[in-house]
């Protein structure tokens, strides 16, 4: 079930029925939608509502050719659906794809569950699966950034082998999955230990920035953690304010999360995987990127001149074009 909050000149929707609702924003700095974008709320089986920012393809569908798969975007810590809406949703909708950016529970404008953390790998992946199951008619491509990539890794390890499998406890089948600057299958503990031994100053900065949330008050540290050194102050400040408001509670209990890892191996090897990293990533190092590539048996692609927040960085087109090239090459 989905509830419309606001629509900005969007083509007719094909999702489940909507009811109009004027909801006050949960964040003090709400993200202003761009032309062609809409915000809906998908109601989960728990009764909680999950924010979804939608931007439909601007291209006419060819009835004689196979439709491009819908794209479903999953953010990481301290972010929500807005991080995809800034650049990549317009880019991919202009390239012919229907785009859906989700805000996980406790993030952005989504409802918050009871408790001290937003969920687990299983609950977050289950929420993504519920949205896909109830709203999309074609197997989508899932795109996940940072911890969102780890959620997708759990999803694909628990996926149905057939589009309409009788095994209802498994997640809907995908066309593909893109893991973008993703936390590797073993989690972030290996990253932390490598930094401690090889780059102790960087390890201190990462811990201070993320664990102590110092990126929220330090513009230089926010830039160094997420963006390229050349990003202008006004942009870093804007994204810093949005990130402050994006996460009302932690995505995970990290201790419990790390104890549950690594994620299981995928069982459906027909799902195509893209592993994409950033050369100037301050959070996920080259070994973390290579670990993910080895785990899925694919060579990782590393984009030069881009930082961890690839979808927001100065050269955001570089990562978008790499993904578009991969999407265009997916087996039809």
From TrEMBL:
InterPro entries membership: AB_hydrolase_1 (IPR000073), AB_hydrolase_fold (IPR029058)
Pfam families: Abhydrolase_6
Highest rank taxon of the organism: Eukaryota
Domain AB hydrolase-1 residue range list: 71-314
Annotated PANTHER family: ALPHA_BETA-HYDROLASES SUPERFAMILY PROTEIN (PTHR42886:SF42), RE40534P-RELATED (PTHR42886)
Name of the protein in its database record: AB hydrolase-1 domain-containing protein
Organism the protein comes from: Hibiscus sabdariffa (roselle)
């Amino acid at each position: 079930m989905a509830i419309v909050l606001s629509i900005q000149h969007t083509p007719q929707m094909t999702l489940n029925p909507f009811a109009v609702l004027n909801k006050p924003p949960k964040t003090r700095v709400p993200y202003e939608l761009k032309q062609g974008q809409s915000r809906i709320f998908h109601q989960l089986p728990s009764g909680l509502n999950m924010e979804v920012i939608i931007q439909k393809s601007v291209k006419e569908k060819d009835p004689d050719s196979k439709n491009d798969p819908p794209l479903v975007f999953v953010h990481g810590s301290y972010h929500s659906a807005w991080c995809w809406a800034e650049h990549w949703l317009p880019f991919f909708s202009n390239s012919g794809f229907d785009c859906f950016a989700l805000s996980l529970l406790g993030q952005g404008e989504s409802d918050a569950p009871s408790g001290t953390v937003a969920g687990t790998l299983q609950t977050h992946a289950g929420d993504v699966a519920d949205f896909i199951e109830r709203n999309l008619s074609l197997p989508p491509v899932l795109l996940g950034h940072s911890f969102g990539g780890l959620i997708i890794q759990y999803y694909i390890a628990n996926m149905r082998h057939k589009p309409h499998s009788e095994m209802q406890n498994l997640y809907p089948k995908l066309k593909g999955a893109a893991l973008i600057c993703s936390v590797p299958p073993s989690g972030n503990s290996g990253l932390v230990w490598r930094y401690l031994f090889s780059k102790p100053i960087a390890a201190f900065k990462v811990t201070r920035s993320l664990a102590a949330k110092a990126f929220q008050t330090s513009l230089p540290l926010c830039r160094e953690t997420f963006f390229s050194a050349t990003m202008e102050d006004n942009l870093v400040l804007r994204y810093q304010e949005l990130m402050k408001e994006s996460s009302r509670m932690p995505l995970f209990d990290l201790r419990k999360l790390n104890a549950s890892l690594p994620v299981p191996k995928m069982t459906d090897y027909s799902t195509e995987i893209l592993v994409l990293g950033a050369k100037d990533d301050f959070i996920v190092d080259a070994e973390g990127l290579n670990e993910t590539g080895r785990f899925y048996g694919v060579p990782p692609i590393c984009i030069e001149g881009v930082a961890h927040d690839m979808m927001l960085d100065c050269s955001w087109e570089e990562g978008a074009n790499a993904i578009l090239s991969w999407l265009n090459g997916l087996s039809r």
